[in-house]
Amino acid sequence: MKASFKAITLTMSMLVTALTSFAQNAPKVAGQIIQVGNQPVAFATVTLLKAKDSSLVKGAIADIDGKYEFEQVKQGKYLVAAVSVGMTKRYSPAFEVAASSIKAPAVTLEAASKTLKGVDVTARRPFVEQKADKMIVNVESSITASGGSAMEVLEKSPTVTVDKDGNISMKGKSGVQIMIDGKPTNMTSQDVAELLKSMPATNVDQIELIANPSAKYDAAGNAGIINLKLKKNTSYGTNGNVTVGGGYGFWPRWNGALNLNHRNEKFNIYGSGNYSHREQQQDLGLYRSLTENNQLSVYDQVNNMHTKSNYKAGKIGADYFISKGHTIGVMADISGGDRKIPSYATTRIGNGRQVDSILKTNTNDAKTWTRNAFNLNYRGILDTTGKELNIDLDYAKNKDAQHATIYAVSRDGAEKGFLGSDTSRNNQPSSIDIKTAKIDYIHPLKNQTKFEAGVKVSFVKTDNDARFDSLRMGNWVLDENRSNHFIYKENVNAAYINFNKQFKKVNVQVGLRGEQTHITGTSVSMKNQQQMEVKNDSTYFNLFPSMALTYKLNKDNTLGLTYSRRIQRPSYEDLNPFEFYLDRYTKESGNPNLKPQYSNNFEITHTFKDFLITSVGYAHTKDLMTQILESDVDKATGDTSILRYKYLNVAKADNFNLNVTVPMPITKWWMSLTTVSVSYAMFETVVNDHQVKLSSAGFFGRTQQTFTLSKDLSAEAVFFYVSPQVTEDGLFKMKSMCSLDLGVSQKVLKGKGSVKLNVTDVFKTNYFRGDFDNAGRYTAVSSKWDAQQFRLTFNYRFGNTNVKAARSRQTGLEAEQNRVKQGGN
Question: 3-class DSSP state for residue 153?
Answer without folding.
Answer: helix
